[in-house]
Amino acid sequence: MAQMQQQEKPVRPPQIQTRQPGLESVMEPAPHAEPRHRAREPKLKDRVALITGGDSGIGRAVALAFAAEGADVSIVYLNEDEDASEAAKLVKKLGHRCLTHAADIGDEAACKQAVEAVVQEFGRIDILVNNAAEQHPQENFEFISAEQVERTFRTNVFSMFHLVRAALPHMQKGSVIINTTSVTAYRGSASLVDYASTKAAIVGFTRSLAHSLVKRGIRVNAVAPGPIWTPLIPSTFPPEHVSTFGSDVPMGRAGEPNEVAPCYVFLASDDSSYMTGQVLHPNGGEIVNG
């Protein structure tokens, strides 16, 4: 009982944001995005990565981790200009180029334009990270409108089809695709039925696409984070939930973005050369058997 009471204590100030996907610049405390270490021998030297949702949260941490490992980066984001500018500044500080591109990835034409911008700037795409997502909690299933379902699937799932289709002509043997799914794909979520459904679809998409592209020498894998402290949290949940977010996992806390980013580095690098169609689970100890 004492342990349960301790877990329920706030671990960060209650806070809320009134826009999605939220701003990292106003979060308290700020998520940790900086690379936890920098390798002597860069794992991603001279590679080019396109990362959706790269302005903040997990996407920003991945962008910085990739840059620390030698990659140039393109950050695709919705409309969080300040966060995107800061992320680009941090990538450049690590000695690598960074292109920022605002786009609603739920729109096929916008996805094509995002890919074309990267190719025009860097000439190719070696790593595609489909990371951006949105979620809209509803306590009652009947409150989930058809419009909400369609919007969530357009952003979280349809965008992956659009981006992969646009990027493939510019990807060579040895390129990689990494998709962000979620722990909710495996255990479900009563208040995030549509979101969890999209994340489950991403698992199937990852496994099937891996089989489809294996003969081309392009690997496809995914990462299924648990509770991670990102702008999506204060922009989604009420303050009282935010204050204890992540305290119910075995490790008793939410993870930081830079604790998840190494999974993406591993999957993007030759260290994972014998892996395709797989999912990594940085989730604080929750066993999902996935």
From TrEMBL:
PROSITE patterns: ADH_SHORT
Pfam families (UniProt xref): adh_short_C2 (PF13561)
Region Disordered, annotated ranges: 1-42
Domain named Ketoreductase: residues: 47-232
Biased composition (Basic and acidic residues): 31-42
Keyword Transcription regulation: no
Gene3D superfamilies for the chain: NAD(P)-binding Rossmann-like Domain (3.40.50.720)
GO molecular function: oxidoreductase activity, acting on CH-OH group of donors
This protein's UniProt keywords: Oxidoreductase
Top-level lineage group: Bacteria
Family matches, as SMART domains: PKS_KR
Family: Belongs to the short-chain dehydrogenases/reductases (SDR) family.
UniProt xrefs under PANTHER family: NADPH-DEPENDENT ALDEHYDE REDUCTASE 1, CHLOROPLASTIC, NADPH-DEPENDENT ALDEHYDE REDUCTASE-LIKE PROTEIN, CHLOROPLASTIC-RELATED
Protein name in the entry: NAD(P)-dependent dehydrogenase (Short-subunit alcohol dehydrogenase family)
Natural source organism: Roseimicrobium gellanilyticum
